[in-house]
Amino acid sequence: MHVDMPTEMGCSLYQGNQPTLDSSAVSILRNAGALIFGKTTTPELTWLNSGPKTTNPHDVNCTPGGSSTGSAAAVADFQVPLSIGTQTGGSLMRPASYTGIFTMKPTYNAISLECQKICSIFLDTLGFFARSVEDLQLLADVFSLKDAHPHKTIPLKETRIAFMQTPMWDQAGPGTITAMNTAFTILHNRGIKVDQVPFPPEYTDSKILTQNFNTICKTEAQSSFLKEYNMDKSKLHPKSALSSKPHPTLHKDTTKLSTTSPVSEKSSLLPSSLNTTQFSPPASQKKHLSVCTISRKVSRSCL
């Protein structure tokens, strides 16, 4: 959310909405010397699979992905060098993959979501888009993100890499399968140890994983979007309205998570930390921070 720019969240209920307060993330960026260039598009309340008319810079007939749609497209199109977005279930990784740029999804709750519209308080995470890993590191430094363990330089031939076929591997297209197999072969031929690591049994059923995610997300979206539903449900997309409508049985479903998908004591349904490699940006970047960033959402408390 930007105090000097409209924040509409892809929703007609907020047409012309003008915030009076910066979000925590934007405030931190401003204080670091960032130049806020503008706002970008997102599907309605970041919830819908279909959304704005934003196209993929590499092919206007293709989508840039969502829900951080415009944030990724603007970076991929060289309109700005950096942007910010959020992820509930793939809204950083998917647009970055579709548009061929870099993204970083930090550890859950590593960056404050104060004054941003929340979809799922249990899952939403703020992250970054850039065209290089070094630029991602620049933003990580601004938000004081640090690895839990000191960085160590490991010789390439002492590196071990896990090759994991996810529970959705049977849905992968031929291009994805070929790319993964090619990478496996290249690494193996260079003497790098690559282990095929299976997923734990409790995470091998993609239907149960999807069911658990949907239960958490829909339950929390019901609370997050209830205000909009009560404001004027006729102005919401039917899918958003359905998600926001009070549903007495929805909360009961969350008690079934542990029975439909057994989880070990050491496991967690919360997003795990992202282990990022520490990079040292040039000294000039540390001294003179001048970045362009984009924020897409506004918190309920700031309207």
Automatic annotation (TrEMBL):
Q: Where is this region: Disordered?
A: 236-283
Annotated signal peptide:
none
- The Amidase domain covers 4-202
Q: Name one GO molecular function term.
A: catalytic activity
Read off the Pfam families from this record: Amidase
Polar residues: which segments have biased composition?
256-283
Alphabetized InterPro entries for the sequence:
Amidase, Amidase_dom, AS_sf
Return the PANTHER family for the record.
Answer: GLUTAMYL-TRNA(GLN) AMIDOTRANSFERASE SUBUNIT A (PTHR11895:SF151), TRANSAMIDASE (PTHR11895)
Query: What's this protein's name?
Result: Amidase domain-containing protein
Query: What lineage does UniProt assign to this protein's organism?
Result: Eukaryota, Fungi, Dikarya, Ascomycota, Pezizomycotina
